[in-house]
Write a structure and sequence with these properties.
Helices cover 43% and strands 14% of the residues. The chain is α/β, with parallel strands linked by helices.
Length: 322
C-alpha cells in the first residue's frame, strides 16, 4: 500500500501543498488561519500521513534524531529509567531518541550513515576514530555519561560496593562475601565492585572477602552453604537480581535472612521491595544522572560547555534482608 503524501493531504483538505507544508512544518511567519491549520492537521491525521524524516532533514539542514548507543550490556532498571527520562526531556525540544544496542559485529559508522542523526550519545566512551568520523560528518557527540574520573552511572562502581560494606559492617558483620555476576558482559563492573568490597574490608580491618560467581536465574544454594560453613555472615551482591538468587539459595539451605546471613544488593529494582524478606539495596541517583545526560546533549547542540556532574551520591535503602 502506497504511503500518504503531502499532496494527498492537500487534495483531501482542498488547499495548496504550500499551505500543507507551512502547517505541518510549523513554518514561522506563515500566514495561515487557525481554522485552516486545524483543518489540515485533522485531514493529515485522518489519512494517516507521516512526514518523511529524510525529507524533513533535507529541508531543515539538520536532523531531529538523537541516537543513544548502548554498549553490549544487559539492560536493567537504572539504564531503563535513564533512557525514559532522556527521551522525555529531549522530546520537549522536538528531538526523538533512537536506542541502538551496539555489537562488535558491525561498525558504528554504518549506523551514522543510515540514520544521519543530529547527535549521538554513548553510555560508554567511543573509540577516537568513531568520534572523528562523527564530528567530520557534522554530528554532535556526547561521548559518555561517565565523569572525567572514570565512574559509570555514579561516582564509581567501586563506591557502590563500599557503601554495601559500610552498611554490613555497621550491622556488626565481620566476614563478607561478594556475589559477582556470571555474564561476561558485566565483568568490568563486577571487577570494579569486588575491588570496592575488598578495599572497604581492608580499611575496616575485616578479613579478605570471599567471591563467587552466582547465576541470577537459579538459587545459589551450594555457594551459600559453602560460605556459611566458612563463617560468612553477610553477602554484598553485584545487583538486586544476583541478590535474589542468594536469598533463594539461603532459603533452600535452611538459613534465615538476616539472622544467619545478611544480603544487600544494588539498583533498588522494583522487585527488591517484594522479595522474601524485602531486600536492602543501594539506590543509584538515576534522576540526577539522566538529567545530566539530557543537559549534556542539549549543551552540545547549543554549542555550550558540558554541565557539571551532579553531586547526588548513591544511598543505602534499608529493608529486612540486613
Amino acid at each position: 500500500m502506497a504511503s500518504v503524501t503531502s499532496a494527498d493531504v492537500a487534495r483531501a483538505a482542498g488547499v495548496s501543498r504550500t499551505t500543507v507544508s507551512y502547517v505541518l512544518n510549523d513554518t514561522p511567519g506563515a500566514s495561515v488561519s487557525e481554522a485552516t491549520r486545524e483543518h489540515v492537521r485533522s485531514t493529515a491525521a485522518r489519512l494517516g500521513y507521516a512526514p518523511s524524516a529524510a525529507a524533513r532533514t533535507l529541508r531543515r539542514g539538520r536532523s531531529d534524531l538523537v541516537v543513544c548507543v548502548l554498549p553490549d550490556w544487559p539492560t536493567g532498571p537504572v539504564v531503563d529509567s535513564l533512557l525514559d527520562h532522556l527521551t522525555d526531556v529531549l522530546a520537549e525540544r522536538g528531538l526523538f531518541v533512537l536506542v541502538h544496542h551496539h555489537r562488535d559485529s558491525r561498525a558504528l559508522a554504518e549506523l551514522w550513515r543510515a540514520v544521519t542523526p543530529r547527535a549521538v550519545v554513548g553510555l560508554a566512551p567511543f573509540a577516537a576514530e568513531d568520534v572523528r568520523a562523527m564530528e567530520q560528518a557534522g554530528i554532535a557527540v556526547v561521548g559518555s555519561v561517565e565523569p572525567a574520573d572514570g565512574g559509570a552511572f555514579d561516582r564509581s562502581q567501586h563506591d557502590l560496593a563500599v557503601l554495601q560494606v559500610d552498611h554490613l559492617a555497621s550491622r556488626g558483620h565481620r566476614s563478607v562475601a561478594f556475589a559477582t555476576p556470571t555474564d561476561d558482559r558485566l565483568r568490568r563492573f563486577g571487577d570494579a565492585r569486588f575491588a570496592g568490597v575488598r578495599d572497604a574490608c581492608a580499611a575496616r580491618r575485616l578479613p579478605a572477602p570471599r567471591q563467587a560467581a552466582v547465576p541470577a536465574d537459579e538459587p545459589a544454594t551450594g555457594t551459600v552453604r559453602a560460605w556459611h560453613a566458612e563463617g560468612v555472615t553477610a553477602v554484598a551482591a553485584y545487583n538486586d537480581e544476583v541478590a535474589q538468587a542468594v536469598l533463594a539459595g539461603a532459603r533452600d539451605a535452611g538459613l534465615t535472612v538476616p539472622d544467619d546471613l545478611a544480603v544487600i544488593g544494588v539498583d533498588d529494582a522494583p522487585a527488591a521491595r517484594v522479595t522474601t524478606p524485602p531486600l536492602t539495596t543501594v539506590a543509584q541517583p538515576v534522576t540526577p544522572q539522566s538529567e545530566h545526560l539530557a543537559a549534556s546533549v542539549l549543551a552540545v547542540l547549543d554549542g555550550q560547555g558540558p554541565p557539571p556532574w551532579p553531586d547526588d551520591p548513591a544511598r543505602v535503602v534499608v529493608r529486612s534482608s540486613t
